[in-house]
């Protein structure tokens, strides 16, 4: 892509792909959509999103969630509340995403801003997964540190590709929803594949064996770093790095003081923190032979795979139905449904489904699909909104800051849920108060509806930030970013 091409306004480059009418048009619509994105945003961007979101995040999340849950339960013998807290600790590398964003934005390594960070992320992921897989009787502290390192590898790769997403959201604001849909579709399909095979792999190889399998997606991130073609940074003044860190910090602080930025940020944190996470209590109940339905590893994996399919359907629903609706309206109905759908767990735990002749597995599958679909519908507008809150020049760093706020919210939710399980004495074998935890969680999910006044009511396709915050200070830096692309191994030789 030429520099002049990269700077053309969206209105001059945008081309409408018009699929045929009827059934054929419906079948070909996703292909036309990918074609449009590849032409408008370059095929390398689309490929990078699919690899990072689809494989390194989607498939890995599907495999790691089930294997880590069984590892905590069967290998480390933890209580549900303890597992809940440790799962929160594993997510801490995602909270420091602004640090990874600052590094990738302002500190090139060996003359490149992106490639070394992909390679670093891949090596960290591979080494940590292999340690978990190959070390016998690993202490809990060492296991948690290894899982945190693996999480850090995924986070570093994520923040690098996020910079590309936010840059394109600024230059192509009307395609911001499409880009987030691409990320969501890739992640959901990858998670669907990961969850579908997770139970089988855990049964076949055990949790530690699956950790060894997880080194493969991390290795693919190394490959991305090797084939990434980007213009080298010449004569970079490393002495100015500290100054750039200070300038970036000031720019983020100025942006956060903007009313149009801090209000949505506050809502995003509170909406996640108030949705108490009691997943580990439900997982232990699912696998209990006395109080619960005693699901096997394969059944657990299949349940989560159906949930991933529900999440994918939520992305497609947002893309085709709700993308052009105001954020405020979508979030209101999504939050309302999110709270009420949580009561399905209450029906299951109280065994009301059996009174009406509905098998546990059938009911859990419906519950998981509906809950994940609504959760994704609630998450998609927040992602699109986040991409529109990033000032030009620090897009990657600021988007990472917004995502870290989200992860602080999820960490708060996880720890608050663990505390709730502990207070209600929900243990490995005691689930008599689990129904009360579900009831409290469902009610807390409704509370963010009262905070929707923090969300802008503007057109979702329009820019939210003031014009001066969208202007770039350095033309050359933007040219470097716009010309970055993935190249095939053949073309790179």
UniProtKB/TrEMBL annotation:
- Statement: the UniProt record of this protein carries the keyword Methyltransferase: no
Annotated keywords: Membrane, Transmembrane, Transmembrane helix, Transport
Q: Would I find NADP among this entry's keywords?
A: no
Residue spans crossing the bilayer: 41-63, 117-134, 140-161, 182-204, 210-228, 266-287, 299-318, 330-352, 398-421, 433-455
The record's subcellular locations are: Membrane
Chief location of this protein within or outside the cell: membrane
Q: Which InterPro entries match?
A: BT1 (IPR039309), FBT (IPR004324), MFS_trans_sf (IPR036259)
Signal peptide interval: none
Q: Name one Pfam family in it.
A: BT1
Q: How does it sit in the membrane?
A: Multi-pass membrane protein
Q: Which GO terms describe its cellular component?
A: membrane
> Can you tell me which family this protein belongs to?
Belongs to the major facilitator superfamily. Folate-biopterin transporter (TC 2.A.71) family. Belongs to the major facilitator superfamily. Phosphate:H(+) symporter (TC 2.A.1.9) family.
Q: What is this protein called?
A: Folate-biopterin transporter 3
Q: What is the source species?
A: Escallonia rubra
């Amino acid at each position: 892509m030429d520099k002049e091409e990269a700077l053309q306004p969206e209105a001059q480059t945008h081309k409408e792909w018009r699929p045929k009418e009827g059934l054929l048009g419906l079948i070909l619509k996703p292909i036309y959509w990918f074609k449009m994105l590849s032409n408008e945003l370059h095929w390398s961007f689309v490929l990078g999103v699919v690899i990072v979101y689809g494989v390194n995040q989607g498939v890995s999340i599907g495999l790691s969630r089930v294997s880590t849950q069984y590892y905590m339960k069967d290998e480390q013998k933890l209580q549900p509340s303890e597992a809940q807290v440790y799962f929160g600790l594993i997510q801490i590398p995602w909270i420091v995403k602004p640090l990874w964003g600052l590094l990738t934005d302002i500190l090139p390594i060996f003359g490149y801003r992106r490639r070394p960070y992909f390679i670093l992320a891949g090596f960290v992921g591979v080494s940590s997964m292999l340690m978990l897989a190959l070390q016998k009787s690993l202490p809990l502290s060492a296991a948690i540190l290894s899982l945190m390192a693996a999480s850090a590898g995924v986070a570093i790769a994520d923040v690098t590709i996020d910079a590309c997403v936010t840059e394109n959201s600024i230059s192509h604001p009307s395609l911001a929803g499409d880009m987030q849909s691409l990320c969501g579709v890739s992640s959901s399909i990858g998670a669907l594949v990961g969850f579908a095979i997770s139970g089988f792999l855990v049964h076949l190889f055990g949790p530690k064996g699956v950790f060894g399998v997880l080194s493969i997606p991390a290795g693919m991130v190394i490959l991305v770093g090797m084939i990434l073609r980007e213009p080298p940074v010449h004569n970079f003044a490393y002495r100015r790095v500290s100054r750039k860190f200070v300038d970036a910090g000031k720019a983020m602080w100025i942006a956060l003081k903007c009313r149009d930025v801090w209000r949505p940020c506050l809502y995003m944190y509170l909406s996640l923190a108030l949705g108490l996470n009691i997943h580990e209590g439900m997982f232990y109940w699912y696998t209990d032979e006395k109080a619960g339905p005693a699901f096997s590893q394969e059944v657990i994996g299949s349940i989560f795979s159906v949930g991933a399919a529900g999440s994918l359907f939520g992305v497609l629903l947002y893309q085709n139905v709700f993308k052009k609706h105001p954020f405020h309206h979508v979030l209101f109905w999504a939050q309302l449904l999110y709270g009420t759908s949580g009561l399905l767990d209450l029906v299951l735990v109280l065994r009301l489904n059996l009174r009406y002749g509905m098998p546990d597995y059938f009911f859990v599958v419906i519950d998981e699909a509906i809950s994940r679909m609504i959760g994704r519908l609630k998450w998609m507008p927040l992602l699109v909104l986040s991409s529109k809150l990033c000032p030009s020049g620090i897009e990657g760093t600021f988007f990472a800051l917004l995502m870290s706020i989200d992860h602080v919210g999820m960490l708060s939710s996880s720890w608050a849920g663990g505390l709730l399980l502990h207070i209600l004495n929900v243990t490995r074998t005691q689930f008599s108060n689990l129904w009360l935890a579900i009831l409290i969680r469902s009610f807390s999910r409704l509370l963010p509806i009262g905070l929707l006044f923090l969300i802008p009511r503007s057109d979702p396709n329009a820019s939210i930030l003031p014009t001066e915050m969208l202007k770039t200070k350095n033309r050359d830096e933007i040219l470097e970013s716009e010309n970055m692309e993935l190249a095939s191994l053949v073309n790179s030789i």
